[in-house]
């Protein structure tokens, strides 16, 4: 349906040539904009209803005092069901620190939250298929679990800024569940839609725009000679380096990955780019620097960059 609407508007209404770069880009932009925003509203509303019954704050308190493997798993689960971008994950990261949850578990949440969320997963299924979505989720869980264990081994508590230990994080609406009836829960879910869409719409549009430009204007020959060749060892590191200065969440970067895959870029290279944009964005690192000192920040960047490259190489080798 969305492809048909895109074809009608781009080729019938705007009279663009289907064979031209502009025509292909505009058709892709219209199709993906409609598809992603419709799915966003529906998915966020449904997950808002779920969160009206299960408070993320309650999950956070459950993590306290549990064995590390269980706490780490719960932190990743919490990160996976909270549709936060990398920057908005930092305040809850501070809440974990204030609650004296071990930093290894805290970093598991910080890694998983921007990388894995239900909105991105459903969008991946709808746009790229359940196989790609499953691969991405599995890779994200492994990266969050193993990466947080590596961070923990370096005892990062010594690098947390002193003032953070004294911060008292005030509960927000996103961390609470409504205890009212159907109307109150509907209001909560609809407010989730408005707040989250308002927070991310620009980055989604930017991501769609980049994906459309990539789809229409980047020559196939260049793709095949560079990123599309899985034998080029530098393709995966290049994807990670390109992703760091770009700020988006997993939802906003999906159209870029879609365009890359359509151009023949290997799945591992595409996932490495997606992960680096979602979990290693420059704005997140600047905010995180206010919480942890340089040694911990450099360690965080290094661990994730190596993990993303490992995922990229692995998936390129398998597929």
Automatic annotation (TrEMBL):
Its main location: membrane. One of its GO terms (cellular component) is plasma membrane. InterPro entries: DUF318 (IPR005524), UPF0718_permease (IPR053166). The chain crosses the membrane at residues 36-54, 74-97, 103-125, 132-151, 200-218, 230-248, 260-282, 294-315. Keywords: Cell membrane, Membrane, Transmembrane, Transmembrane helix. It is a multi-pass membrane protein. Pfam families: ArsP_1. Belongs to the UPF0718 family. This is Permease.
């Amino acid at each position: 349906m969305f492809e048909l609407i895109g074809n009608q508007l781009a080729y019938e209404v705007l009279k663009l040539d289907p064979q031209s770069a502009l025509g292909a880009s505009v058709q892709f932009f219209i199709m993906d904009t409609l598809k992603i925003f419709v799915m966003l509203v529906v998915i966020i509303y449904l997950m808002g209803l779920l969160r009206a019954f299960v408070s993320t704050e309650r999950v956070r308190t459950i993590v306290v005092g549990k064995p590390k493997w269980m706490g780490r798993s719960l932190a990743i689960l919490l990160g996976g069901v909270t549709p936060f971008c990398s920057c908005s994950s930092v305040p809850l990261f501070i809440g974990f620190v204030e609650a004296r949850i071990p930093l290894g578990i805290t970093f598991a949440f910080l890694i998983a939250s921007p990388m894995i969320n239900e909105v991105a997963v459903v969008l991946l299924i709808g746009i790229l298929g359940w196989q790609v979505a499953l691969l991405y989720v599995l890779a994200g869980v492994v990266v969050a679990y193993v990466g947080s264990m590596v961070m923990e081994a370096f005892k990062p508590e010594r690098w947390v800024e002193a003032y953070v230990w004294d911060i008292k994080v005030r509960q927000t609406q996103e961390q609470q569940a409504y205890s009212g009836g159907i109307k109150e829960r509907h209001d909560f879910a609809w407010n989730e839609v408005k707040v989250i869409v308002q927070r991310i719409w620009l980055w989604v549009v930017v991501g769609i725009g980049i994906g459309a430009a990539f789809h229409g204007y980047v020559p196939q020959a260049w793709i095949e000679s560079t990123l599309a060749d899985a034998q080029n060892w530098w393709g995966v590191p290049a994807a990670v380096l390109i992703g760091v200065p770009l700020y988006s969440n997993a939802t906003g970067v999906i159209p870029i990955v879609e365009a890359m895959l359509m151009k023949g870029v290997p799945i591992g290279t595409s996932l490495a780019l997606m992960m680096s944009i979602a979990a290693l964005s420059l704005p997140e690192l600047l905010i995180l620097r206010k919480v942890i000192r340089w040694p911990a920040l450099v360690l965080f960047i290094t661990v994730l960059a190596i993990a993303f490259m490992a995922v990229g190489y692995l998936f390129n080798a398998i597929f």
